[in-house]
C-alpha cells in the first residue's frame, strides 16, 4: 500500500518470489561490521547548497499542463475526495 | 572524403571534415538519418528519430559556419538517451508511464550540447527508468546487439551503445547509476565514460537514484568522450548537487604519455566469476599499459563483495521516493475510470510501470519502512561508507584502478531476465564507482567468442583527465575501438 502500486493477481506469485530473492540477497549486508561507521548520504560529503528565497521561474502553467491527463481552468482534476 | 564513408568517422574526424569543407552538416546529417532509417529497426535502438529537427539544425549550423560562427561541436550529430528531457520532443524514459510525455524544457546536458552546435538525430531506447542491465525492461522492447542480434547490448543505455556500435551515430549520451554507460559500452565494443558524481548536471535527467545518477557519453574513442565531456561538464545552479569546480581542457590533457602512471589492480576483480576469455583480454590490456610506461600494483578493496547488495538497498530506496511523483495527476499515464483518488494512484502506477520498476519501488519502500530502516537502509549507507573509504585508501597509492568492466561478454536476450540477482551481478565491477562517486570509463580491449570485451578504468574524484588520458594512450597503441560489426561496416 505504501508504494501505491496495483499488482495484477496473476503477477503476485512471481512478484513475491522475486522480492524474496532480492531481500535474501541484500541480507548479506548484516555480515558487515559497521560499528561506529557514519552512514554516507552523499558521495562527495558535500551538503546541499542553499539559494536565495527568490522567484526565479516564469509562469509556464499552460505549457506544463499540456502533459496533464485532465485539467480545467488551470486546475488538475482528480476524483472527488471530500463528499 | 566520400559521403558514403561518413558513418565510419569519429566526432573528431568529422569536425575536421566540416572545418575543411569536405562535406556540410546537412550532408552528414542526411547520410546518418538515411542509415538510421535503413538499419535501426533491426536493433530497435531508437524510440524517436527527430529527422526534421535534425535537418533544420544542420542547416542553421551550415549557415552559421558560412558566416564564421563556429562552436566546438558545430554541425556534429549525436543522439540522446530517452531519459534526457528534450523540449517539444517525446521523452519516455523507456516507460509506458511516459509514453506520451512531451517535455516542456531541455535538460542541461541537452541544452549545453546544442548550444555548442551539436545536432540531435533522435532519442535512444533504454531500460525502463534506467532500471536494468540488458535493455529488456524497456516498454518499447529490447535493443539488439549489433555484434550478434540475439544478444543484449547491455543496459540501461542499450540504445545508445547499440547505435554507436552500429555506426548509426558517432556519439550518444547516456546515464550511469550502477554501470549503465560502462557495461553497455563494454558489451558493444564502444567507449563509455561516467564522470564524477556532480561533474555533469542532472537537471532534466529523469531521476532514478539521485545520489548515484550521473550523465556521460558513449563514443567510438576516448578522444571523442573528452571532447563531449568538456561541453557537458560544469556547475549548474539548477542541480543542487552540481559541483562548482573548474572544467579542465580534457582534450589537451590526452597527449601525455603513460610514463609513471600508477595503475592499481584489484585482486578480487580476477577471481572466479570472470569469464576466461575476458580475463585474458583484460590481462593483455594491462600488459599494454605497462609497456607504455605505467606501473602495475595490487590494491585491495576488502568490502567490494558488498557493493551489489549495498546498491540494491540504496538505489531502490531512492527510486521509490523519486518515482512517487508519477501519480496519474499532473503528467504521465492515468488509469481509466478511477473509483477514487487511491484507486487512481494505484492503477495508474500499476499499469504505467513494468515489473522491474515495480519490484524496485517495493524493495525501496520496504527498506525505508519504519521496522526495517536500520537493518537495511542505514546499514547500507554505512557499508557504502566502508566501500568509499576502501577506494580512498587505494587512491593514496595509485592514479587509476584497472580491471574488467563486466564479468562476461554480451549474453543472450532472455537469458537473465527471469533471475534478478544474476542480472544485478552483471554490474559487480562497475557499481563501486557509483557508490563512491568516482569517474569510470570502459574501453574496448579485445574479444571473447567474437564479442567485445571492455577494460574498466576508475579514477579518483575529478580524475576524468587521468582515465581519459590512459584510455586515449591505450587507443593510440591498439585498434580494438575501431572494430565494427561486419554487417554494420
Can you put this structure into words, describing what you see?
- The complex is a heterodimer of chains A (83) and B (489).
- Chain A is built from two helices and two strands; from the N terminus they run ααββ.
- Chain A is mainly alpha-helical.
- In chain A, strand 1 and strand 2 form a beta hairpin.
- In chain B, 37% of the residues lie in helices and 13% in strands.
- The longest helix of chain B has 22 residues, at 373-394.
- The radius of gyration of chain B is 21 Å and the shape is globular.
- Chain B has a domain at 3-257 and 462-488: Amidase signature (AS) enzymes (Alpha-Beta Complex).
- The interface between A and B is large, with 49 and 77 residues.
Explain briefly what this protein structure is.
The complex is a heterodimer of chains A (83) and B (489). Chain A has 83 residues and is mainly alpha-helical. Chain A has 2 helices and 2 strands; from the N terminus they run ααββ.
Write the layout of secondary structure elements.
The complex is a heterodimer of chains A (83) and B (489).
Chain A: H1 9-26, H2 61-65, E1 71-72, E2 75-76
Antiparallel strand pairs in A: 1-2
Chain B: H1 11-19, H2 25-43, E1 46-49, H3 51-66, E2 77-81, H4 108-115, E3 119-124, H5 158-165, E4 171-176, H6 182-188, E5 191-194, E6 214-219, H7 222-232, E7 262-266, H8 276-291, E8 295-299, H9 307-322, H10 341-352, H11 355-368, H12 373-394, E9 400-404, H13 420-424, H14 431-436, E10 440-448, E11 451-458, H15 464-477
Parallel strand pairs in B: 2-3, 7-8, 7-9
Antiparallel strand pairs in B: 1-3, 4-6, 5-6, 5-10, 9-11, 10-11
Helix pairs in contact in B: 2-3, 5-6, 7-15, 9-11, 9-12
Amino acid at each position: 500500500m505504501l508504494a501505491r502500486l496495483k499488482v495484477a493477481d496473476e503477477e503476485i506469485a512471481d512478484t513475491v518470489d522475486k522480492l524474496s530473492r532480492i531481500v535474501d540477497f541484500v541480507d548479506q549486508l548484516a555480515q558487515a561490521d559497521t560499528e561506529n561507521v557514519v552512514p554516507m548520504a552523499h558521495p562527495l560529503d558535500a551538503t546541499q547548497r542553499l539559494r536565495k528565497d527568490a522567484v526565479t521561474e516564469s509562469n509556464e502553467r499552460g505549457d506544463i499542463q499540456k502533459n496533464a491527463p485532465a485539467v480545467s481552468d488551470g486546475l488538475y482534476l482528480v476524483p472527488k475526495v471530500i463528499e | 572524403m566520400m559521403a558514403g564513408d561518413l558513418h565510419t568517422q569519429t566526432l573528431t574526424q568529422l569536425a575536421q571534415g566540416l572545418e575543411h569543407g569536405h562535406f556540410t552538416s546537412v550532408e552528414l546529417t542526411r547520410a546518418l538519418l538515411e542509415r538510421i532509417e535503413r538499419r535501426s529497426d533491426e536493433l530497435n535502438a531508437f524510440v524517436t528519430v527527430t529527422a526534421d529537427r535534425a535537418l533544420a539544425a544542420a542547416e542553421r549550423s551550415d549557415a552559421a559556419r558560412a558566416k564564421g560562427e563556429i562552436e566546438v561541436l558545430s554541425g556534429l550529430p549525436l543522439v540522446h538517451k530517452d531519459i534526457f528531457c528534450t523540449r517539444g520532443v517525446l521523452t519516455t524514459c523507456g516507460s509506458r508511464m511516459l509514453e506520451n510525455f512531451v517535455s516542456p524544457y531541455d535538460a542541461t546536458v541537452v541544452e549545453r550540447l546544442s548550444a555548442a552546435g551539436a545536432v540531435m538525430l533522435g532519442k535512444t531506447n533504454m531500460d525502463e527508468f534506467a532500471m536494468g542491465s540488458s535493455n529488456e525492461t524497456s516498454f518499447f522492447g529490447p535493443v539488439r546487439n549489433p555484434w550478434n542480434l540475439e544478444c543484449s547490448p547491455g543496459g540501461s543505455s542499450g540504445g545508445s551503445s547499440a547505435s554507436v556500435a552500429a555506426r548509426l551515430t558517432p556519439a550518444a549520451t547516456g546515464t550511469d547509476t550502477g554501470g549503465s554507460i560502462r557495461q553497455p559500452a563494454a558489451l558493444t565494443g564502444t567507449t563509455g565514460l561516467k564522470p564524477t558524481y556532480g561533474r555533469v548536471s542532472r537537471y532534466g535527467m529523469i531521476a532514478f537514484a539521485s545520489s548515484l545518477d550521473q550523465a556521460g557519453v558513449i563514443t567510438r574513442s576516448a578522444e571523442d568522450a573528452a571532447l563531449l565531456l568538456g561541453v557537458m561538464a560544469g556547475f549548474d545552479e539548477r542541480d543542487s548537487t552540481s559541483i562548482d569546480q573548474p572544467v579542465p581542457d580534457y582534450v589537451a590533457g590526452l597527449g601525455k604519455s603513460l610514463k609513471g602512471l600508477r595503475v592499481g589492480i584489484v585482486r578480487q576483480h580476477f577471481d572466479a566469476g570472470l569469464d576466461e576469455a575476458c580475463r585474458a583480454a583484460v590481462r593483455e590490456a594491462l600488459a599494454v599499459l605497462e609497456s607504455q610506461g605505467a606501473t602495475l600494483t595490487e590494491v585491495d578493496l576488502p568490502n567490494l563483495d558488498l557493493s551489489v547488495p549495498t546498491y540494491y538497498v540504496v538505489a531502490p530506496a531512492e527510486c521509490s521516493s523519486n518515482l512517487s511523483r508519477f501519480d496519474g495527476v499532473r503528467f504521465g499515464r492515468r488509469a481509466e475510470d478511477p473509483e477514487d483518488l487511491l484507486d487512481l494512484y494505484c492503477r495508474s502506477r500499476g499499469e504505467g510501470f513494468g515489473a522491474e520498476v515495480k519490484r524496485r519501488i517495493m524493495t525501496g519502500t520496504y527498506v525505508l519502512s519504519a521496522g526495517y530502516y536500520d537493518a537495511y537502509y542505514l546499514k547500507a549507507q554505512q557499508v557504502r561508507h566502508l566501500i568509499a573509504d576502501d577506494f580512498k585508501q587505494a587512491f593514496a597509492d595509485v592514479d587509476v584502478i584497472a580491471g574488467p568492466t563486466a564479468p562476461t561478454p554480451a549474453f543472450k536476450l532472455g537469458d537473465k531476465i527471469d533471475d534478478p540477482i544474476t542480472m544485478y551481478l552483471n554490474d559487480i565491477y562497475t557499481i563501486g564507482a557509483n557508490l563512491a562517486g568516482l569517474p569510470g570509463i570502459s574501453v574496448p580491449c579485445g574479444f571473447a567468442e567474437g564479442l567485445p570485451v571492455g577494460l574498466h578504468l576508475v579514477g579518483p574524484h575529478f580524475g576524468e583527465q587521468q582515465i581519459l588520458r590512459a584510455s586515449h594512450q591505450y587507443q593510440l597503441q591498439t585498434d580494438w575501438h575501431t572494430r565494427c560489426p561486419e554487417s554494420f561496416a
